[in-house]
Specification:
Strand content: 25-35%
Number of helices: 5
Number of strands: 14
Oligomer: single chain
Largest sheet: 7 strands, antiparallel
Order of helices and strands: HHHHHEEEEEEEEEEEEEE
Radius of gyration: 64 Å
Structural class: alpha+beta
Length: about 270
Amino acid sequence: MADEKRRHAARPSHAAPRTGSRARTSGADEGISTIRSGQGARVTTRKNAAEVADKARKKAEKRYFERHPEAKASDVGPARSGRNVVLLVIMAILALAIVFVVGSCVTGLVSGSGEKDDAPTQTLQLTEQEQQLQEQQLANDAGSEQVAVGESVHYAGDAYALVQGDDGTWELVCTSASGASSTLFLIEGEPIALARMADTILIPENRGGGWDVVCYVINGQGSATYVVDESGSVAGGEGEAASAELQGTSIVVTDAAGAAHEVSLV
């Protein structure tokens, strides 16, 4: 018996693990099973990349909100009390009132400035005497007048007269209401009268053995010239003119022989 026990004890010690190893291997084989199509790992391609990324994002959000539930937004908004609604309505009414008041002020300012711009400029009123003088001046300027050499005719408040210089040359001088005088032009001949028809000065004269009529438009663009007849020639005649008289739109010149010559001024 002792020998038998020694024989059993002398058996290789690795025999038992081999048997147990076979048993475990058999059990593992019995637990293996196959998988169906679509149950294994999926390879990410261009077609399913968006889907895979979306799933990964959703899983990450789910894990985050599980760890931080306070970060998840509530689906229900804050409750509004009746007092809050009333306050909102009052604030809206006040805002509308402020806008109305400001708009009214701006409109009033614009309208006020427009009325000032449209208001007629106040002019000085003439006295009754000044009005009479003005009417007389206008009537005088529209009419005609004739004076002797050395006297003056008037137009628009200015005086026009024939003045002879130291050398014997005659000139027409204008004297303004302020007293300032200026020579308008020189006369080549010997004047026999001074006349004015509206704004035109007329001076009949003897010149070079004959006579003619000098004319000058007050405030005109040109200088003194001569009255012409229908043919465009200087109106006048031979011999010496003794007198002249303004009659309507003509001036009648009487020569030394007593003959009268009518010169049209229109």
